[in-house]
Amino acid sequence: MKTFIKTIALSSLLTCSAAAMADQSDYKLMVIETATAPQPLEQSFNSCALNVKSKNYAQAEEVCTKAIALLKDADAPRFKVRQLTSYALSNRGVARLKANNETAALADLYEANQMSNSTMVSHNLNRAKEELSL
């Protein structure tokens, strides 16, 4: 599974590379960029981020959950599945946070942070803790 992760700053319509960070007050949403036709996993993963951007938080949570389920059965190296699962959990956490489901959002963000040593995931967790004054 060859994938490239990109981030979407929640307040910006522009995507940037995973190495580049947008304004630190934004949440980071990860998407999969693929050179081939998107598979169900990529479609669910990317649809999650797009629904968050569109403020369709219930739909975002649903498709993020689908992406997480698809990752459990993914035929890819374990480290890659773990990393993508972390990103999907982080995206779902942002969706839940924006839908005012803070407890579930924090659970997702903490789990995502434990799974991956990603600056984007840790940024989302820290940003949520600041927003919620934790």
UniProtKB/TrEMBL annotation:
InterPro entries: TPR-like_helical_dom_sf. Residues 1-22 form the signal peptide. Keywords: Signal. This is Orphan protein. It comes from Pseudoalteromonas marina.
